[in-house]
Amino acid sequence: MDGSTHLFVSIWIKLFFLLTPFFVLTMFLSLTQDLLTGVRRKAAVWLTLDVVIICFVLYFLGNAIFSVLGITLDAFRIGAGVLLFLSAVDLVRGTENPLQREEPGSFIVVPLAIPITVGPATTGALLVMGAEVTTSWEKFVGCCALIGAVLSVGILLVLATTVERCIGRTGLRILSKITGLVLSALAAQMVFTGVRHFLT
Predict the structure, then answer these.
(1) Which residues, in sequence order, are CB contacts of 99 under 8 Å at separation 6+?
(2) How many domains does the chain have?
C-alpha cells in the first residue's frame, strides 16, 4: 500500500467513525419515523449534501482559524480530543438525545447535520486534520477521503429502513456503543499527540 492509499484509508476510517454513523442513523430513524420511504430517502440525500459542505468548510479553514486566534495546533488537538472523548462516553453510555422534529424539513440542517452529525468534537477533529496536512496532494487525498466517509454515512441513511429491518434498534444501539469505543481511542491518541508535541 503506497503513501497516498494509506493516507486515504486512514482519513476515511477516522472520519467515518467521527461522524458517528450508527448514532446518526438512530436519530434519523427517530426524526423521520412518520415519513414515507421516498420522503425519508430524499431527506437522507439532502442531509448528506449538507454534511459534505459543512465538513469541507471546517477542513479547509483550520490553518486560518488557528492563525487568527493565535492558538497552536497542539493546543487545539488536546481540546478537540477531550471533547471527542466526552462524546464517546455519551455513545458508550447510550445517552438519549431529546431533540424532536418540529415540522417537515426543519430537522435536516438542525439538528441532524449540526450538532448530531457534525458536533463540537467532530468540528474540532476536522479542524485539526485539515491543519495537519501541508501539501496540495495531501489536501486532495483528504478531500476524497472526506467525501467517501460522508457518502458512506449517506448510503446508510438512504437505506435506513432496510438497515433497521435487518438489525433492529437493539443492533443499532450496540453499533453505536462500538463506535463510541473507537472514538475514545481516537480521542486518546489526539490528546497524547498534542501533549507530546507540547512538551518537546
Answers:
(1) 27, 31, 111, 116
(2) 1
Q: Which residues contact 39 (CB under 8 A, 6 or more apart)?
A: 32
Q: Which of 146, 107, 108, 140 is nearest to 125 (CA)?
A: 146
Q: What is the pLDDT of residues 15-54, one digit of tens each?
A: 999 898 988 998 898 778 778 889 999 999 999 999 999 9
DSSP 119-150: -HHHHHHHHHHHHH--SHHHHHHHHHHHHHHH
pTM of the model: 0.79
Q: In b/e form, how buried is each residue of 115-130, taking b as 16+ CB within 10 angstroms?
A: ebbbbebbbbbbbbbb
Residue 86 near residue 188 (C-beta atoms within 8 A): no
**pLDDT confidence of residue 27:** 82
Q: Which three cell numbers stand for residue 1?
A: 500500500
pLDDT recorded at residue 46: 95
- Structural domain of 152: 3-199
> Which distant-in-sequence residues (6+ apart) come within 8 Å of 73 by Cβ?
66, 128, 131, 132
For residues 132 and 52, what is the distance between their CA atoms, to the nearest angstrom?
20
Whole-number pLDDT of residue 105: 57
d(CA 190, CA 200): 16
- Cell 476515511 locates to 12
- Cβ neighbours of residue 60 under 8 Å, at least 6 residues apart? 130, 139
Residues 6+ apart with CB under 8 A from 22: 156, 172, 175, 176, 178, 179
| pLDDT reported for residue 176 | 79
